[in-house]
Write a structure and sequence with these properties.
alpha/beta; five-stranded parallel sheet; four-stranded antiparallel sheet; elongated
């Protein structure tokens, strides 16, 4: 399974940029704009790390982090805030956050810090999926059919890994676009069809699964 990260940030543009950059680096990133949305997402999904702003309406980052920490003492929490004062940092770390970044954010540094937090939390362990002769390694972003490595882009890898992680479950084009295109979500849903065609062509030699078109919805992976 991909390592899933939840980004809680009310600046929609920054939210999309952070999610897109994390996704392009091999993570599964999901964005929401307030803690209440985050609670709803966490009720039905498992996340390995949370990135949160501080200054948000109704429920701020401090209250949100405190609630999360009371429910899960281990999940890494990274604050991403415009506040650069010691008081805010002290309060955050007292609550139990694991790291703190000051805006504007350097995206490469964000990825480095996320990777370090996950490593320390022992989450970035064996991230592998095997389907017959196909072996996918999420940590190395490699896909092998037998002993032959298949050239694949990060996005192609993530889409295929997602489908194979949930065999027989249909995903709409909009769902795949939202998760793996992020800031580029204004792109036509036709882009998903193009990527599925590429994936089918690249993995045509593997007879252990097939990607089936679910008419009127999107796609699903079926194990053979």
């Amino acid at each position: 399974m991909l390592i899933n990260i939840l980004v809680v940030e009310d600046d929609v543009k920054l939210n999309h940029i952070a999610c897109a950059y994390l996704s392009s680096n091999g993570y599964g990133a999901k964005g929401c704009t307030n803690p209440q949305e985050a609670y709803d997402l966490m009720y039905s999904n498992r996340y390995s790390l949370i990135i949160s702003d501080i200054m948000m309406p109704k429920i701020d980052g401090f209250e949100f982090a405190e609630t999360i920490r009371s429910l899960d003492k281990d999940i890494p929490i990274l604050f991403m805030s415009a506040r650069d004062d010691l008081t805010a940092k002290q309060k955050g770390f007292r609550i139990g956050i694991d790291d703190y970044m000051v805006k504007p954010i350097d995206l490469d540094e964000l990825v480095l810090r996320v990777t370090a937090l996950l490593r320390r939390a022992n989450i970035a362990t064996e991230q592998k999926l095997v389907v017959g002769t196909l072996r996918m390694d999420a940590a190395a972003l490699t896909a092998m059919i037998g002993e032959q490595e298949v050239p694949i882009t990060v996005r192609e890898f993530n889409v295929l890994y997602k489908l194979l992680s949930y065999p027989n479950q249909a995903f709409s084009r909009a769902q795949l676009m939202d998760e793996f295109w992020g800031i580029e979500s204004q792109t036509s849903l036709r882009a998903v069809d193009i990527y599925i065609t590429k994936i089918r062509n690249k993995f045509s030699a593997c007879t252990d699964f097939k990607i089936v078109t679910v008419h009127g919805i999107g796609y699903k992976a079926v194990l053979v």
